[in-house]
Amino acid sequence: MKILGFITVRVNSSRLPRKTLLSIRGKRVIEHVIERAKQIKGLDGVVVCTSISPEDDVLEQIAEEQGVLCFRGSLEDKLERYNGAIDRFGAELVFLIDADDPFFDPEIYELAIEQMRAGSADIIKSSPGLVPGAFAFGLRAAAIKEACAIKDTTDTEMYEVYFLETGRFVVEDVKVEDPIYFNDQARLTIDYQEDFDFFKRVFDGLEMDTNTVPLKKIMELLTAKPEITSINIHRHADYLAKREKMRQTKKLKSI
Fold it and tell me: 47 near 84, Cβ under 8 Å?
C-alpha cells in the first residue's frame, strides 16, 4: 500500500500575502513544513501539491531543492489536484498536510496512518478539541476519486464538505489520548500577521533552527507561557467565521 503525504500550498494568499515564502530563522515557511513532513514515519514520499500558476514556479523549485516530489494542477480545484497527484505517483492512502500549519505533529500522523491501515475508515479527520494545526486529513485514494465524481464545481477550496457532509464515506477521528494536545487557547496555523508573529515567537523561544521539535514540547511551552498564545488566539474566531461562510457558499447543492 503506497502512502504519500500531500502538502497543499500556493503562493497567493489574501490575508497574509505570500505567507508561505516568509522567513523564520533563515528558512521559508514552506521549507519548515517540508522539513517536518520528512519526519513522519510510514510515508513512502512527500509531494508538494501546488498549482500551474506561474507564481507557483518557486514552489516547484523549492520542492526540488528539498528533495521531495511536486505535482502541479488546478489553481482552484484542490480535489482535481489531489486526484492528479494520485494518478501520477500511484498513492493508495493520502495524508494531507496544510502548508499553513508548520507545527503539525508527525506522531499524530503516524497514529492516523496505523489507524487507516488497520481499519476500514475512508477518512481520518482531526479529533474535536485537538489544537488547530496539529493534523489535517487522512484519505483513501478511492474516496478522493469518488469526491471528484460527485463535485458540482471547480472551486473545491472547501473540499472537506464532500467527505464529511455527503454520507458516502466512513469517517473516524484520529485517536489521540494525551490531553496536552487539546488546548482551546492555542492556534497553530498561519492566516494573519498575528499568527506569523506567534510562530516566530515560538521558533525563537525554543531556538528552533530545524523544525523537528515534537509538538508535545511546543504545547508544554504554550501551557507554561499563555502570554505566547495570546498573540494570535483572538484571530481564531475570525478564521472560523470565514470558514463557515465559505462552507455554506461552496457546499454541494445536493447536500
Answer: no
Q: Which amino acid is at 94?
A: V
The stretch 136-157 carries a mean pLDDT of 96
**C-alpha cell read off for 57:** 514556479
Range list of β-strands (E), the chain? 3-8, 23-24, 27-28, 45-51, 69-73, 93-98, 123-125, 137-140, 171-173
At a CB cut-off of 8 Å and minimum separation 6, what does 58 contact? Answer: 11, 21
> What percentage of the chain reaches a pLDDT higher than 90?
90
CA 192 to chain CA mean position, Å: 16
In this predicted structure, what is the pLDDT of residue 192? 95
- Return the axis-axis angle of helices 106-118 and 215-224, rounded to nearest 10°: 130
pLDDT the model gives residue 15: 82
Question: Using CA of residue 35, residue 59, residue 134, residue 92, what is the dihedral sign?
Answer: negative
Rounded CA-CA distance 104/107 in Å is 9
Rounded to a whole number, what is the largest CA-CA distance in the chain? Answer: 50
> Average pLDDT, stretch 59-77?
97
Residue 35: closest CA among 102, 109, 111, 117: 102
Inter-CA distances, 107 with 46, 110, 178, 190, Å: 16, 5, 12, 21
Can you tell me whether residue 209 is helix, strand or coil? coil
Task: Tell me the average pLDDT of the chain.
Answer: 94
Q: Note the pTM of the prediction, 2 decimals.
A: 0.94
More reliable by pLDDT, 152 or 139? 139
